[in-house]
Amino acid sequence: MAAFVSRLHHIALHVRNVDKVAYDLVQKFKFNLFFTRETESFKQLAFKKGAAVFIVNERPNSPHFGLNGGSTLSSTSGTSLKSEQEWNKKIGKGKYKNGTDSCLYDVYPQYSVDTACNVCFEVEDVESSFKFLRKQGCVFLVPPTEVCDDKGVVTYMVVKSIVGNVNHTLVDRTRYDGSFLPGFQEVDTVMNNGRPTVKNTESCPISHFDHITYACPRMLTPQVIRWYERNFGFQRFFIESNEDVDEGFVLSQDGIGLRLTAMYWKSSEKGTQLLSPDKKEPVCKFVIAESLPEQGSNQVETFLEQHRGPGIQHIGLYTEDIVSTAQTMAQAGVHFFSPPPAYYTEVGKQKEMEEAGHDPQVLSQYGILLDTDLRQTDLSRQAIDAQGKRYLLQVFTKPIFCEDTFFLELIERRGASGFGEGNIRALWRSVQAYMESERAETREENTAEQQHTSLESLPTRQNVYED
Ligand SMILES: O=C(O)C(=O)Cc1ccc(O)cc1
Ligand SMILES: [Fe+2]
Predict the structure, then answer these.
(1) By CB atoms within 10 Å of each CB, which of 2, 161, 195, 413 scores lowest?
(2) Considering the entire predicted model, what is its pTM?
(3) Residue 293 confidence (pLDDT)
């Protein structure tokens, strides 16, 4: 017995400036705003692309807002405020009022940085899940609660996870006929009220969340795995066929020091499957990343430092065509990490790319990485490329919030179900180079500032002679 998950419903972000993130999700990542809710204290906007749904929450009266005036233009944005303001007008900023003053289907996290911190699952029965999880000793932030409108009833509760600030909302929608959740207003209603909305139709075939990656402190992985196994019936997904159960998938050569362990859920006591029960969308995997000792500054440690604790480091968005998706997004202003140029000129890699039907130059334009999966597994046997090879294509965005924390990834799987070792190494190198260049920039700025200050404090020639 466990609180069996039937599907992932949405992922919630909590941010200081919802309009900034809304702008990025719609204009750059091509999501569509489809439901909204606003009360005196909370603003909740829901965005959708395929089956991938984000709810972005802002609490305008939060004490944290005073710190920076609610302005969180991220380092990667490149957005002109003017167009953002125009867009805010378009989405009818500040116009959706609803009586109940709470962060519906969630809790407001007392967190000082922007964060992705709630993964909402659909379950068949919230009451029995509650009883089971209570016996297991879980901590509840919201007990089973009913919300209804004229389309029916939804029951939900919020349980605290074992990973940093991550919570799970468990929701039962089986008695609800509406297309989202009661309490939210459909954006088309806004259209009827005469306000235009943005509808994205560009070539960006994102279909679902492929995986969610947690950044964790060292040695926490076994506890995390046990927690999800005991409570939600998750099971291990072996990234590599000869992966050690306790060690996970360890990458430790050439300056990289990373331990990855992955899991996914079974949708009932009977079945373990990589497809959700209605077979429409593959199950989203969970990856736990921890850095190995003595690695110094790196992607995982930087996240833990800047996020001020463990949490969701990145989310993989599945696309059926990574090249057109990355192209559309890059044109709209998304910044991707690029591996060192040598990655695309190396003969072996070029051959791999060409064999997979890709032009290395096109992939290099957007920083797309390609790995060939050589292992033979039952899960990937059905979807093998004509030449018997399986490929994995990935590209990683730069952090999307102010801090060096959360980022998104595009992933296209051509038969490969795991994570590419070569891709992870290339990503690691690009991030190290990025962090070093950022550090060098900061050093340069500091030196320039010091020089500026010391020049100012030096007596001028004139002063000297005047004396
Ligand atoms: O390869 C992927 O997409 C992963 O999710 C694995 C991973 C996890 C953490 C990192 O800092 C880098 C790569
Ligand atoms: Fe990933």
Answers:
(1) 195
(2) 0.85
(3) 86
